[in-house]
Amino acid sequence: MRPTGGPHTAGVGCRYLKDLEDIDLDALRGILTASLRWAEGGGDEHAALTVTG
Question: Greater confidence, 23 or 3?
Fold first, then answer.
């Protein structure tokens, strides 16, 4: 993981948040909504959505 200048670290396609209280919930909701819409629409041949936890 590499530092990104904010309160998180990043992998190739991941963000690792250090403090959940610092999350902008409206922004996160928008990202998740768009990701779900993309996945339900079939995604594409270059990417896959993985949910862990």
Answer: 23
Q: Tell me: pLDDT of 16 over 60.
A: yes
**DSSP codes of every residue in 1-53:** -EE-SSSEEE-SS-EEES-GGG--HHHHHHHHHHHHHHHHTT-BTTB------
Q: What is the largest CA-CA distance in the chain?
A: 35
- Compute the radius of gyration of the chain from its Cα atoms: 13
CA distance 38 to 24: 21
Supply 1's token pair: 């993981």
